[in-house]
Write a structure and sequence with these properties.
Elements (H helix, E strand, L loop, with lengths): L5 E5 L7 E5 L3 E6 L5 E7 L5 E6 L5 E6 L4 E5 L9 E3 L5 E5 L5 E6 L4 E6 L4 E7 L10 E2 L5 E5 L4 E6 L6 E4 L5 E6 L5 E6 L4 E5 L4 E2 L12 E4 L5 E7 L2 E7 L5 E5 L8 E4 L5 E5 L5 E5 L3 H10 L2
Antiparallel strand pairs: 1-2, 2-3, 3-4, 5-6, 6-7, 7-8, 9-10, 10-11, 11-12, 13-14, 14-15, 15-16, 17-18, 18-19, 19-20, 21-22, 22-23, 23-24, 25-26, 26-27
Length: about 300
Amino acid sequence: MLPIRVRAWTFPTNSETLLTLDDQGHVTRWTGPTFQWAEPILDLGPDGITDACFSPDGSWIATAFRNGNLAIHFINPDQNREPILLSPGPIRLIGFIPGTNRLLTHDPRSEIYQCWDLIRREIVWEQTTARFGFLSKPAIAPDGTRLIVPSPRDELSLVPLTSGDEETVALPIRQITAATLSPDGRWLAAVSLQGSGILWDRHQRRTSPTFHGFLQGAHSVTFSPDGRRLAIGSNGAEAVKLWDAESLQELITLPGEGSMFQSIAFSPDGRALAACNSQGKLHLWYAPTFDEIARIEAANP
């Protein structure tokens, strides 16, 4: 567990580092075998930040402020560039769209999603779509093509961010809190406040059996980079559970401290798994891959 309270964090793609924004406004790059070495990057100050997110490649951080301003800072110390400053009013940050210079935001007053081109500094796309629930947050698909919106009606909307039609999926679980797509885009995983999860096969248009395992609710979900493992965040002694994404066999329970692990991600190489609770405590775990497990079992029949 990192010795700070985290407001935003990411494993940058194509990197062996971890980036964090703490509750004092410090942006830090963590490196080393267990991310034990801290390198200060930026000091944004602690005042007025209501929301924050990093770009997937770790080159930018966006911060929304109580006064309705939005700032995008460049993280690369070799680029001495001024931050981009915008004034969209009170917004919720959804995230950066992978592989682009675009940031997706949500206006809670009008229920409109807005896509900002950060180079042109203007809105290039906006849409009113499914309203998401109080305990859920929309997520951008790993390939950047879809916005996944859990709705209060126990449905998921897959909103195209490039081209195509909006897709609505009704699932047999209640109070959906989080959802994501597998790296290949075939499987849609969703978890609920009732502690259950389910997979939807987008090719064959059918669901997996509902899988359970949490005494309390599930709050976050992610696939490993190879799509073979599914990690779900919950609470306390059941901070994270890992499943085999094909057989839906439960693999391991990772205990933690605190409640509501609302963000979760694997490192790009799949060796590290991080999850952050509602108190800002970021937990880190390390696990062998399936191939390493197979080699160990073969060497010790």
